[in-house]
């Protein structure tokens, strides 16, 4: 059995070597010739999986180690009798931690001693948006959530959703929608000129969902205005060909790595491994935890002098500071267009190991209950 897989899926050999021969190829450059003699195809979001790629191949199972599925033609797979597996929620916690770090930086930039005084509008309450909602609620943020499909489905549950216009009045707007072009609530260019014009210089817009959710042409026009909002972009409309002017005007930029914690990536591999085992009728004997190495940072200690907001920011940024990704991405501005695209993919392929908050034990000596609760809500392990 031949397994063709995106070379950037971690631990391919560890999870799949007992199942079949593994051939690793570039996900971005994957062609129909690469998969023609494959039985199993494993991809990430950079590979478009459709009739063009698969027709004439032996592929009977496609797995994507990602939350999103907009890169996969699900109707074609169903019609061709090809079983599909994805990894919903696999890196949701990683993206939440990216957002939390961005929030801490924005609060500091805004001169707020207490970051929970920020109001946060979450657009999309799926795996990532829902996890962010729960975390911010535990931390005491004022959160407004917009998700029209969920609001329609859950209208009897008592969950309070708001309109998009109301969510756009928050200090921070964080986008967590899938990319859709049809239906009652399409998200393609959802943030166009009209909606972007409503934002002010006191606000921050974060996009870690799909680049095409924001109309980048309209965004550039918006950012040229004197009262323009700050923007933090992890995803871009024409990846990997990032518009250099958009990059220059973005406050905080990263190369589609919000979900790139080691835990998130390995969990994605584990989920599609389990899906493949079910498809083949094999026992799933491997778990991601058995392959995670000891973290480089394993412990932080705070004394009774520590204040909750400052201590939380220190711990968050010790684990992950998105400004490092920003510096790496901006180095591409010195390159010409083809090299920028290659460089963008290289930043993702060679991304340094990033561990989640749960890998760090926080030692607290004589600290307040509020600080303890804050670290628990963030997902750190505590030693009192």
Feature tags:
3 domains; 37% helix; 384 residues; Rossmann fold; alpha/beta; 15% strand; 6-stranded parallel β-sheet; Ribosomal Protein S8, Chain: A, domain 1; globular; 5-stranded parallel β-sheet; 16 helices
Explain this structure to me?
The structure is a single chain. This protein has 384 residues and is of the alpha/beta class. It folds into 3 domains: 2-90 and 260-291, Rossmann fold, CATH 3.40.50; 92-253, Rossmann fold (3-Layer(aba) Sandwich); 299-383, Ribosomal Protein S8, Chain: A, domain 1, CATH 3.30.1370. It has 16 helices and 14 strands. Helix 6 (127-139) runs antiparallel to helix 16 (369-378) and helix 13 (308-319) packs parallel to helix 16 (369-378). The chain is globular and about 60 Å long. The chain starts with a strand and ends with a strand.
